[in-house]
């Protein structure tokens, strides 16, 4: 045990030895700078001494005290302890004792006054884990909300040509909130009036059902079950068909915060805690902190294709390092371990849009599967069968480092003894300036798929090439080539080449040019040149000239587009050339409850007048709402009967509650957290709001109910005087009969809630107490009343 005469003391009840040095300048520097050795003369440490010290390793405080031994002016620790701190110590046994200053490159600073040791070690001597930065949460699904209700989207269109008239009504009906599924039906009804076979004028009409389906979603595994009309297949080298039946498949839209594509990882290391910033092509994508050791930034880049990432590391000493990483980002691949699949069983839909219930007699089965075998390779497979047809194929997509993405597939089919195959090869590469895409798909033999049993066979040769460049001075230039060879000998081969150019100029005006030519028919060519000039913030002027084969057309267009948030818009257009001269005039208005428009056009001797209206009707929670078309999810907001309250979606005002204190808010993003809020400053003074911000997470194409609890309260500012008519002292206590309390402020004023029509309150001041009685004014419903002065009536009972 250390001697008390040397101003040291020890406490061994928990085997803990604390050492305190005498107050001297030497006690502030207990190590020899740069050596890590403890100054024996300063520390007064002779025989080995057990120390439990706070450890700061590379500027990172460790959570627990660590045992050391001071021996011969050096700090020692066993290998197990040092490995627990993160040291590698190759060749050292667990029970071997190691001197800190013997570890190559390590510096030690021992602070006896604080009982702390600061260790700076090179990362080569440490085995620290890699810290993942920028990884986005949200792999787990969010809890979705859904209230029972019915929604009807409608789109009405009427036209008249002078000799004939027509009415068209398209609709979508949804029923949601009964369980976790959504039942939807789309239909079109048409009515036509005009000459028909010389029988005179008269109305005739028909209606047709388009799609009917019931979707049941499971956000946990990201799977959706569909019963009704659906599409099969989803791979680039397959042809989907519309079926009626049942389909089960992966649906990552149920987990919108999950990133399914491989994320480029940017690796680095920090010797001390540091601030990390990630820039993609000069735009900051991530900012955060990292402890000492290796780190990996997995931020979602803001571009697709080749790019340059720059990681800026600023350590605790203010030193700045910059790391650069070229990378290639693509949505074509799945991240390692993820899968995407779909299985369908049913019958092919025929005469779609013409007949309501027309399905082929032969059942079909189809399945597709994608799997991220690695971050650089995604496997693809597909199989389908129907009416003696067996079809299967396999493919994949490879990330070739910075060289782009290569895709390939091969499929074979057998149908009634006839066999065939299809091979496909594709390549794509792009960066912020250049882009290149090549695709080729060829069939051999009698290749068939389900689509060819109910429609045309796939082309025997389908090739496409697109190349482009983006420049600041010369604009954007793109070249394209397309070739289609049909299996039907009666259909000629088609080969087209195209050139397009566009550029934006100062003053926000822009110009574009396109040229297309059939390489097998010199007369089949077209050219288009256009200019768009903005006239202020709301209007724009467009002029264009087009030559199609040997006919020219010029057009002048002046328009004020309808604002996206609502308002009025119009358009005036004139045409002249080898084709019929003419023009059109149209206007439209977008409101909170619908969108309407009307117009008239005349070309040559023909005239066409039309009108259009679209919107939606929603029935939910016992209330009916009219709104614009609702394509996804929505919410019904309630403010407990308070009208005119502004409601914000993501901090932007989207409407005011109606006379019932209700508002339909659209559009909301399904399965995402949508922030809805109200401003309590827009509410009367006699109400209390429990929450001013709420998160709504509706299911897809369904509605959620959001209630802001607005509770009426009887509140007032009381002016309180004592028995002598003087304001009560500041700090006096006020208590109502039901236990509510308040503190008196300046001029004897106190704010109280929960008042009744007749009130008795107790007041205590300067060691005394009294009672005050008063009535709440009947005319104080809309404002905060000021009552008083009120004088104490007598002492407390």
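Q: What amino acid sequence fits the structure above?
A:
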């Amino acid at each position: 045990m250390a001697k008390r005469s040397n101003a040291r003391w020890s406490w061994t009840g928990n085997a803990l030895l604390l050492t305190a040095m005498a107050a001297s300048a030497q006690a502030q520097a207990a190590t020899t700078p740069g050596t890590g050795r403890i100054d024996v003369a300063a520390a007064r440490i002779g025989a080995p001494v057990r120390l439990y010290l706070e450890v700061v390793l590379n500027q990172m405080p460790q959570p627990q005290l660590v045992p050391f031994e001071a021996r011969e002016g050096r700090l020692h620790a066993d290998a197990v302890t040092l490995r627990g701190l993160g040291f590698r110590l190759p060749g050292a046994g667990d029970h071997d004792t190691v001197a800190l200053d013997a570890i190559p490159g390590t510096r030690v600073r021992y602070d006896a006054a604080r009982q702390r040791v600061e260790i700076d070690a090179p990362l080569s001597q440490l085995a620290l884990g890699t810290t993942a930065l920028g990884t986005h949460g949200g792999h787990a699904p969010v809890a979705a909300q859904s209230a029972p209700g019915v929604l009807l989207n409608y789109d009405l269109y009427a036209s008249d040509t002078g000799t004939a008239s027509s009415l068209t009504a398209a609709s979508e009906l949804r029923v949601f909130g009964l369980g976790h599924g959504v039942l939807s039906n789309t239909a079109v009804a048409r009515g036509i009036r005009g000459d028909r076979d010389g029988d005179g004028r008269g109305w005739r009409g028909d209606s047709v059902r388009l799609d009917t389906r019931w979707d049941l979603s499971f956000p946990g595994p990201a799977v959706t079950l569909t019963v009704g009309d659906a599409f099969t297949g989803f791979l680039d080298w397959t042809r989907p068909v519309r079926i009626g039946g049942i389909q089960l498949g992966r649906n990552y839209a149920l987990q919108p915060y999950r990133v399914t594509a491989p994320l480029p990882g940017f690796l680095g290391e920090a010797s001390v805690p540091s601030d990390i910033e990630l820039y993609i092509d000069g735009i900051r994508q991530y900012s955060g902190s990292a402890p000492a050791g290796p780190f990996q930034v997995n931020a979602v880049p803001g571009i697709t294709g080749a790019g340059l990432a720059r990681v800026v590391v600023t350590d605790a000493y203010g030193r700045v390092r910059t790391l650069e990483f070229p990378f290639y980002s693509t949505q074509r691949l799945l991240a390692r371990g993820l899968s995407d699949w779909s299985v369908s069983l049913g019958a092919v839909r025929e005469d779609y849009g013409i007949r309501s219930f027309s399905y082929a007699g032969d059942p079909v089965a189809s399945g597709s599967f994608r799997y991220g075998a690695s971050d650089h390779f995604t496997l693809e497979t597909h199989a389908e069968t129907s009416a003696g047809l067996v079809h299967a194929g396999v493919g994949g997509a490879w990330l070739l480092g910075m060289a782009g993405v290569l895709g390939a597939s091969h499929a074979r089919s057998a149908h009634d003894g006839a066999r065939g195959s299809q091979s496909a090869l594709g390549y794509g590469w792009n960066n912020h300036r250049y882009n290149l895409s090549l695709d080729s798909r060829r069939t051999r033999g009698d290749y068939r798929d389900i689509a060819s049993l109910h429609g045309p066979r796939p082309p025997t040769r389908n090739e496409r090439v697109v190349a482009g460049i983006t420049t600041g001075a010369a604009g954007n230039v793109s070249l394209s080539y397309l070739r289609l060879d049909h299996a039907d000998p009666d259909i000629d081969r088609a080969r087209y080449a195209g050139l397009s150019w566009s550029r934006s100029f100062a003053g926000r005006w822009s110009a574009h040019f396109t040229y297309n030519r059939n390489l097998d028919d010199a007369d089949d060519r077209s050219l288009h040149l256009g200019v768009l000039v903005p006239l202020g913030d709301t209007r724009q002027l467009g002029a264009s000239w087009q030559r199609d084969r040997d006919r020219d057309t010029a057009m002048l267009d002046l328009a004020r587009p309808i604002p996206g948030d609502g308002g009025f818009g119009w358009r005036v257009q004139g045409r002249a050339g080898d084709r019929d001269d003419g023009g059109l005039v149209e206007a439209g208005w977008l409101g909170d409850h619908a969108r309407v428009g009307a117009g008239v056009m005349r070309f040559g001797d023909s005239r066409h007048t039309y009108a259009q209206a679209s919107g939606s009707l929603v029935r939910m929670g016992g209330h009916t709402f009219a709104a614009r078309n609702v394509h996804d999810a929505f919410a019904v907001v309630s403010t407990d009967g308070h009208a005119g309250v502004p409601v914000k979606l993501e901090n932007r005002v989207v409407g005011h509650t109606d006379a019932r204190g209700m508002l339909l808010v659209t559009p909301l993003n399904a399965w995402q957290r949508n922030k809805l809020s109200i401003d309590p400053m827009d509410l009367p003074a006699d109400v209390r709001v429990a929450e001013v911000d709420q998160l709504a997470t509706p299911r897809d194409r369904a509605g959620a109910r959001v209630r802001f609890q607005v509770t009426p309260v009887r509140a007032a500012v009381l002016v309180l005087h004592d028995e002598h008519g003087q304001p009560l002292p500041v700090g006096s206590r006020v208590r109502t009969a039901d236990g509510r309390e308040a503190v008196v402020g300046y001029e004897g004023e106190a704010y109280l809630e929960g008042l009744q029509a007749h009130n008795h309150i107790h007041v205590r001041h300067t060691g005394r107490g009294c009672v005050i009685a008063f009535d709440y004014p009947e005319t104080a419903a809309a404002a905060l009343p000021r009552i008083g002065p009120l004088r104490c009536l007598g002492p407390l009972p």
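Q: And what stands out in the fold?
A: Confidence is low (pLDDT under 50) at residues 1-37, 39-45.
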